[in-house]
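Hey all, quick one. A colleague (J.T.) asked me to put the iron/sulfur cluster job into the tracker so the inputs and the C-alpha cells live in one place instead of scattered across chat threads. No bug as far as I know, just bookkeeping. Sequence used:
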Amino acid sequence: MSTKPTLPMTPRDILRENALQIVMYILGAAICALLWWPLALLYLTYAVLSNVLYMAWVCPYCGHYALGTCPAGFHILSGRRFKPKLGTTFAREFRRNLWVMVPGWFVPPIVAAYLLLVTGFSWPVLALLAIFCFVAFWWLPESSKSHCEGCETVDCPRRPKPKAS
Ligand code: SF4
C-alpha cells in the first residue's frame, strides 16, 4: 500500500494497477480450461467473487479505503459501500478472511499438476504452469512491495512495521 497523495483514479489507472493480478487470473483460467472448459468459467467467477468479498471483509478496516487512497482502486470499484464493524482491526480481519483469495492462487497449480501427473506430461502445460507461478508467486509479491513502501498501517500482517517508540 502507498500513502502518496493521489489524483482521482481513472479506469485506466485501476486497470494498470491490477493488471498483474488480471494476467494471473487469465493464465489460471487457461490452465483450468485444459482440464475442463467450464472449470475456467467457474475459476473466473470465483476470482471476481473473492475480490468482492475481500473488499467487503477486509478493505473497510484499511485506512486507504476510507481515505480514498487505495492504490488498487478498490474504494472506487466497491463504491465504498462496505462499512467496518466496531471492535476489530485490519490485522484481525485480514488474517481471518485472507483464505477467500487462496483458491485463485492455488487451484491452477493443482490442476496443472493433475494434468502433468495423471492425464499425461505436456510441455505446453508445464510452460503455462511455470509462467503462472512466476507471475503469482514472484512478480505479484515483488510489485506489491512498492505499494507497501511508506504505508503507515502498522498492524498490517503482510509487512509489519516497527512501532514508533
Ligand atoms: S490497500 Fe486497503 S483498500 Fe486497497 S485493496 Fe488493500 S486492503 Fe483494500
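Adding what we noticed when we looked at it: The radius of gyration is 17 Å. Residues 123-148 form the longest helix (26 residues).
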